[in-house]
Amino acid sequence: MKRRDFVKNTSLAGVVGLGIPVIYGHLLPKGYTPLGLQDPDPFTLFKKDKGMQVLNDKPWNIEATAHLLDDDITPNKFMFIRNNGLIPENIDVAKWTLTIDGESVVTPKTYTLNELKNKFESHTYQLTLECGGNGRSEFDPPAKGNQWTIGAVSCAQWTGVRLSDVLEDVGVKDDAVYVGYHAADLHLSRDPEKEPISRGAPMPKALQEETLLAYAMNGKAIPLAHGHPLRLVAGGWPASVSG
User: Fold this and answer.
1) Where along the chain do its domains lie?
2) CATH second-level architecture of 97-242?
3) pTM for the full model?
4) Helix, strand or coil, per DSSP, at residue 10
5) N or C, which terminus of the chain has less Cβ within 10 Å?
């Protein structure tokens, strides 16, 4: 989708002064900024096909059109991008760590990415991720939020270590009912005290064999827009559960 095609049909206060109408402008969440004619070009920035549709750029949210989703394994160029906060600008993988702690953890531990890869067995699964708001543009009555059509879904190959193996390593008490996560994404306000999103999953889902702490997507390091260098992947549930 060309960027000029994104700005049509209704209005949004942020661009009214430019005389540019925006699709579903009145339904976009407060604080969201439409791409309009701004740079940088998202297709180059994220290595996406130009047939993808940009919904907004603050945060970046991009979906595939239906005809781009015919592959058995969704390639990166056709994978939707769904963010609630700002993508981290600089990540030093050599210094990056994952900490597992909480009131139901027996022995809190911190791992580097290499430690995770070397300590635990890696697994590869083809898993479907779909935004819980997929299809929202067709809701009646209309609903606020990103106006997804049907392109906020993907089925990539994910490689990583099982979350259950890592939880076994730290030890989990019998009273544990839920896992949650916190990531490096910044809130739209850039206030470090605010979280853009924090989801999780009940223990039965966290302990499934297919629930991964993934470090690779389709055989390559996960792109920054999709969770580099490590992300939770819990296939079959709303993708917000996966971070």
Assistant:
1) 3-70, 97-242
2) Alpha-Beta Complex (3.90)
3) 0.81
4) coil
5) N
